[in-house]
Every structure is written in structure tokens, then in C-alpha cells.
Specification:
Strands 2-4-5-8-7 form a 5-stranded mixed barrel. A two-stranded antiparallel ribbon has the order 3-6. It folds into 2 domains: 1-45; 62-263, OB fold (Dihydrolipoamide Acetyltransferase, E2P). It starts with a helix and ends with a strand. By secondary structure, the protein is α+β, with helices and mostly antiparallel strands. It is 36% helix and 20% strand. Helix 1 packs antiparallel against helix 4.
Length: 266
Amino acid sequence: MKQFLCFLLFTLLAVSACTKKQETADTAGKKDVITENLNKESGSENPPADAKGSGGQALTPTDLTAPPAALPGLGGQAGLKETTEGAFQVKKSYTEHGRQIIVKNAGNAAAFKKAGSNFAQVEPNWDAPYNLNYQGLRKVNLYLTMYEKWPKEVLQQLNGAAVTISGMVMPTGPVPQDGRMIDFWLANPTVVMAGCVFCNPPTLADLLHVETMSGSKPLVVDREQLYTDIVPVTVTGRLSFGYKKTADGVESLFQIELYTWQNVER
């Protein structure tokens, strides 16, 4: 009996050790995937370090403000086929899920509360806004996921800065009958064109929460068009980084305080 108990104890200890080894391997694997994705996004074999770090390439404001790749469904860059497919995806999604549904990002924005939100802001230069791009926002999101902090140099130059970016308008709540939207999601066109954003939610970097600046003209849209077609716009506003949650429960990591806007001609 004593020998049997010893054998049983030995077996349990061996199984426990194997389980811990596997958990460690799984964790390492996940970290490797994040690192690999970040390297692909940044085009570097080395993961970025903080501006004052060492051993890696720093993530800089240029990553967010370099000329963006051509986006589908925007202006002269879009063919009739792209525009038609985008409209089809939007109409199909709202038909299947109902107009009351609200798009939400796939990530957990609240998980990054500890990384901070109330950072010092630079003064916006409305005469020369930065051209913001979604590729750069994705790099920042990956950096934040890896290091659990915001890239310092990006905050120092761009938090509070005037930026311009184009995207697709999506509601954050019920849309007034007159189509005046005090706040809305500005979505990465590539994601909207790819399929149903309710079945395959965008990442935290693919949805910018836009709120109208005090004294500025709010966005006005054709209410029916929101549910049956794409609504591309270009916005200029003040960029902010950090976790935010509105009184209506809208959570985001990237925000723009709307200064001006214009429709994108298709």
C-alpha cells in the first residue's frame, strides 16, 4: 500500500510539472506571435523600444504620419466595384443584425487603463495638421500590448496635435432624425470593406472615437445612407491617446476632437 501511494504521488508530481512546462511554452508562444506581428507592422526585425530604451528600433511619430497606403472606397482611389462592394457589405450587415446594433472593437480597451490617459497635450496647429494613418495606429496598439505603456516620443509630439484622417462613419448610438452626429466612430475603410464588422469586429486601432469640439459644426449625414451604403468622410481634429469611456459607455484608446469635416467624393 505504501509503495502504491508513493507511485501515485510521483505520477501526480510528474503530470503537474508537464502542465507547468506546457503553460510556459504556450505563454512564450503568444508573446512570440505578438512580437512577430509587431515586426511585420513596423517592417523591422527588431521589436521597437521606448525612445530612451535600447536594443531596438523606436516607434516614432513618423510611423503614424507617413503617407498612408491607398484606402479602398475613398475618392479617386476607389473604383466602382469597391464602392459597390462596400455598400453591399454595410446594407447586408444591418439587414442581418438590425439597425439598433452598434459596432464595437474586438479588444478590451479597459485593460489598458494602467497605461494612463491624461497625458500632457501639445497645442494643435490647424494650419498644418499631421496626416494620420491607420497603419501607424496599429503599430501603437501592438506596442501598447507588448509593453503595457504608450510610446513616449509619440505622446510628446502627437498627443493633442491637429491631425487629418479619412474613414467610414459608423454610429456609436441611435442616430437623430436630422442626421446630426455629435459623436461617431471613424472606421478603417479596409475593415469595413472586408466584411461584416459586427461578426468580425475591428481592432482598437481601426476605430477612432470622434466627438465634436465645442463651437465646431457637428457632422451631418443622410441617416438612411448610414444603414444602406458607405459614408466616407475626412475629419480634421485634435488627437488624443489613452483609455476613455463616455457617459454613454463608448470605450476607446484613440480619440479625435472634431474641428472640421468634409465628405469624400466617390
